[in-house]
Specification:
Elements (H helix, E strand, L loop, with lengths): L3 H30 L1 H34 L3 H22 L4 H29 L1 H28 L4 H13 L1 H13 L4 H28 L6 H20 L2
Helix pairs in contact: 1-2, 1-4, 1-5, 1-6, 1-7, 2-5, 2-8, 2-9, 3-4, 3-8, 4-5, 4-6, 4-7, 4-8, 5-6
Length: 246
């Protein structure tokens, strides 16, 4: 039986997991209807999300994880290396023909989105603040992820409407699936084990922001993309300090 705090935690996880799927779907829909506008705005969403996601583990997630378990820093390294090698493997495989590129890259995005859902479950179980900041950055980057996944299926030769459905299935629905599958397991963990998991998640978030989102945004450099990144950092800093001085 869940107590009141348990219900509150699950409500926050469910809210952001479903919101992530909705934002992902909006990215797909807007690209389908307003291609030029969607592609112009994508780098700003990516940069803003990267700003939030790089700040959250450094200011909150990793320090809290180490406080709960001394070895959480080691797990952060494991999380970073896990993302590094899994992404390297996907890139190596996707050098083949166009259809294989679309399918295998989409599989990688599905795994990545599933992990996003697990991150919601872990971070909100630590605290609402850590979960809120991590989830905010992840939800914002879902817009760009929807666009990217839809584009991958189109490059693979899949028809437009079918590409929309597959992209939402792969990148949108896998996030709430990951959150709902992980929550019953994460909810039962003790503080020390939860600290290790949060350390792993911190490493994943640092990788996603520094090695995935920012280089991708830099590849489509826009006039104010750095400002969008700093706005993401500023939002995270503002929320953290406002909570500290309450």
């Amino acid at each position: 039986m869940m107590n009141e705090n348990g219900y509150n935690t699950f409500a926050w996880i469910a809210l952001f997991a479903v919101l992530a799927a909705i934002v992902n779907g909006l990215g797909i829909l807007i690209l389908y209807k307003y291609k030029d506008r969607a592609l112009r705005s994508k780098p700003y969403f990516i940069c803003f999300a990267a700003g939030v996601l790089i700040s959250t583990p450094l200011m909150l997630a990793l320090p809290q994880a180490i406080e709960k378990n001394f070895y959480a820093g080691f797990m952060a390294l494991v999380g970073f290396l896990f993302m590094f090698f899994s992404n390297s493997l996907i890139k190596k495989i996707t050098r083949k023909e166009v259809l294989a590129f679309g399918i295998v890259a989409a599989e990688g995005i599905a795994i990545h989105s599933f992990i996003d859902g697990v991150i919601y479950a872990v971070t909100f179980n630590i605290s609402i603040l850590v979960g809120f900041l991590a989830a905010t950055g992840l939800v914002i980057h879902e817009f760009a992820e929807g666009i990217i996944t839809y584009t991958l299926f189109l490059k693979g030769g899949v028809k437009e409407k079918r590409s929309m459905f597959y992209a939402f299935l792969v990148a949108g629905l896998t996030t709430p699936l990951g959150a709902f599958v992980a929550y019953p397991l994460v909810h039962r963990l003790n503080e020390s084990t939860l600290g290790l998991m949060l350390g792993f998640v911190a490493g994943v978030l640092i990788y996603v922001s520094a090695s995935h989102l920012l280089p991708e945004a830099r590849g489509e450099e826009k006039k104010h993309s750095s400002i969008a990144f700093l706005c993401g950092v500023a939002l995270a800093v503002f929320i953290v300090f406002s909570k500290m001085f309450e």
